[in-house]
Write a structure and sequence with these properties.
The chain has 125 residues and is mainly alpha-helical. The protein is built from 6 helices and no strands.
Length: 125
């Protein structure tokens, strides 16, 4: 197996695991998610889904299905960001819990684009 494919999966999946863990450790994460327009019932399981899915991609479990699921999740996150960017005062990104308190913007979309590309590469092996 190509090292590039393995590294792409570890980077993409690892990023999702870290994002989920930081959300769980954040006091404000659920409030930030609601401010982004995500309902509480949908937001609550997101960190757990991120951790599980990220680990599956990083460990190459259920490839390519886990990679396709991760791409779908990051696309959904990107749509939430685009919708939030249209607000007069964009809310902060809750992507990494309390780690990053910047309002949502094009940098968040660029990061998600990189995650999607890495995940797509990881699915090829």
């Amino acid at each position: 197996m190509d090292l590039t494919i393995v590294l792409a999966g570890v980077l993409a999946g690892g990023t999702l695991v870290v994002a989920g863990m930081l959300k769980l450790s954040s006091v404000n994460w659920l409030d930030d998610a609601v401010a982004l327009g995500v309902g509480v019932a949908l937001a609550r399981p997101i960190p757990f889904v991120e951790i599980a899915l990220g680990a599956m991609v990083a460990l190459r479990l259920a490839t390519p299905w886990s990679s396709m699921a991760m791409i779908a999740l990051v696309v959904a996150f990107s749509l939430v960001i685009v919708r939030a960017m249209r607000s007069e005062v964009p809310p902060v990104c809750a992507c990494f819990g309390s780690f990053d308190r910047r309002p949502v913007g094009f940098g968040h979309l660029a990061r998600n684009g990189v995650l999607i590309a890495l995940t797509a590469v990881s699915a090829t092996g």
